[in-house]
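step: validate -> pass
step: tokenize input -> pass
step: predict -> running
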Amino acid sequence: MSIPGDKTNLWLIATLILAMSPQVLNMPISVLILTLFPLSWRIGSEIRDWKPLPAWVRHGATAAALAALFFSYSDISGRRAAVSLLTVMLALKLFECYRIRDARLVICFSLFLCATQFLFAQGILMPFYAAATVMLALVTLTKLQRAEAWASEGGKPPPVRASLLAELSFSFRLLALAVPVGIAFFIFFPRLASPLWGIPDSTLDSKTGLSDSMSPGSIQTLFMDDSPAFRAEFSGTIPSSEQLYWRGPVLWRFDGRTWTSGFYGKNIDAAAVPLSEDSSWTYTIQLEPNEQNWLFALDYPASVPPDARLTMDFQLLRQRPVIQLIQYSIISNPDFIDMPDLSGPLRLQALDLPESSNPRTRALVEQWRRETPDDSGFVRRVLEHFNRESFHYSLDAPLLGAHPADEFLFDTRKGFCEHYASAFAVMMRMAGIPARIVTGYQGGWFSELGDYVLVRQSDAHAWTEVWLDQSGWTRVDPTAAVSPLRVQQGSLGALGAPRHLLDYSWLRGLRNSSDIVQQRWNDWVIEYGAGRQARLLAPLGLDHMSPAMLVSVLFLAIAVFSVIIFPVVLRIKGPGHKDPVQQVWRKFLKRLEKAGVTALPSDGAIELAAAAANTLPADSLAIHRIAHLYTRSRYAPVPPPFADLKQAILEFRPSKNTG
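step: predict -> pass
step: emit ->
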């Protein structure tokens, strides 16, 4: 059975395209091409009436799509790979979608595909995306149902001259009926401390963001990413921008090019948690999903979230990755002295360097070290060198070779924060000063409307910590010596030049200001848990109810909504055929009624004309003419022009019945 016309297939294709649109933006190019091919062919087929493709083409496209998926994704069981597989298979289904049953399957799986996108994003725009997809799906299902209802009669459904707005309006009204029930489920359904299901760690995707390694250019790539990393809301004094160093992974090991985390730092817990003092900062962080195990905090965490632990180098690590928005409160003590005594194994690891690497840097350090034996003095001398010489904070850093520190310090002298932090740490270790790299974020944008600090991925930063006698591990940011604006105004303010054509300061300000909408959405929707549910229901006296009682209240609310909504459902009518003949005939009946002639439902046009002529003898001729035109318009093989009937009714002015 072929799907009938009336652009039903185009509605089907539009629904599928909208459902897959977030996914195709994240597909590898080979998979994307094999997804767009069947879509493009089917649109052309609907417009040009092409014949179905032969079986060998369809089977070949399917095999190519599967091969592209396996080669593009290292693990086909990952979330992104699995959803890409669903997307490609739905697109390929259009090759053989010529029955109403097949069309319904595509629509139903398109709705499922839309639901899978909430695994990757739960922002405030997602409900609008889902609502639009459901509306298009309802329009398509309505057209398919209309076609199937008339298929048994062996013909096509009657023409429905409804506009695009009318079709969407009907679907919107159907969707709106579900909103009260959805709100009732959201408010009253018992909230659990954890989701009903979990996502295995092996199926996580490689999201962009900080990693537990750093090489030249790794943090620089995040500079183009303006997606939020987290938000921090302080209670009390807000630190200045120069103090906002958000601590993340700490890197100890260096192979000559790449810094990685060390065994001790990740596996040994802190001997003691810093004390909370008057100078401490108290704040709450709302962390976006990053699929990593670490949390972010200012130096030095004086409290540990319940599901995390504090390592010996003061990283906050969770047992499971952050796969959904989380919120945690923390206290930081900036005056804490980190490790005043450095053990032998840690000292060896903090001084380890590959042999025979960066010979020019080593020679320079040996000369300076003889001239400046004091550790603190040597640190200042290197920072002054960065500040006085022609070093530049830039995104256009050339690629570095086998001796990256030599090439950076003596040849290119251009780089991002990771170039300066790495070169500085190498120089410290060559001088016998223990050093390590800390990656995280620096700075943030303060929202006056929301009273919180917004930190984006483009605020990613790397700095160095050196161990000094009596001071312990001390933060040193060599990037600040080259570009103080990086610390004062952030990475965007330091570079000055726009990153792309639409990178204007007023657009960035508008985007930052509008983030409060997303923050409120996170607070009241994404983070709507058991505690917030209890606070919301407290005014109604429902905050101490058991889960079973909450379910009872939920079903009671649904019953009340149903009583209100059911009469509304009965009144909803779909877009129908507006019969112009029937419309003008109703005008004629209304004019007769004003003149004292009431038409019965059982009266035909000729019977009504006879009765009306007896009541209104002066208008008998006009009444019979109108009835004759209406009857011919309804039943004659060749109806008269509609304009004749319309004109006759417009000119009809019956005399009043005087009895």
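step: describe -> Residues 8-158 form one domain.
step: cleanup -> pass
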